[in-house]
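Sample pair:
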Amino acid sequence: MEGLIRFLRGHRWARRSLSVTSIVLLVAALGLLGYPAFTNWQHDRLQSRLRNNLNSEALAQSYRNRNLKDGDALTRIKIPALGVDTVVVEGTTPSALRAGAGHYPQTPLPCDAGNVAIAGHRTTYGKPFANIDQLKPGDSIILATPIGTCTYEVSKAPKPTPELAAAFVVQPTDFSVIAQDPSKSELTLTSCHPKGSAAQRIIIRAEKVSGSATASG
């Protein structure tokens, strides 16, 4: 340590470099701490607007006509076991997912037959799916759309473990989890795994137990 101090005293450029490095590290640390807070603030503002839009007659008509745009309010997802209550928007683009959760547009609308798929954040933008790994078989997931409500029941994982009774993990390129079987009425939730990383995807599958298809209102 004494040698380092003598070196810094004798080399002005080294002192300046150390100062610049310290400032860069401080700014980076503040950014890492502040980014989640900023995205959560954006999420809260957006969710307030989406909740108002979800109850509008104009949106209900667009829903019936299947004329929904990226970022439109689509459904309210409630997961009582996790305390989740957030509005899901149409689309899974980065812009749409600022709402916290978005519907895969290539899958059926909520409550319709087939495999309805929703992606959500785990660490930013309200992190509605932060704890989906804690869901257990039999837990309820409620989708309230502009024209109807339905309830799904979480299924058991294909290969349950003590840590993951309902959730399972796949590679980011594995889109088989949102494949369609019109004879079933399912819901698939997807998110990044592990938290803070996009290395894999964590999946929850649920089966519809009540509620009418949105097509009939």
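Confidence is low (pLDDT under 50) at residues 22-33.
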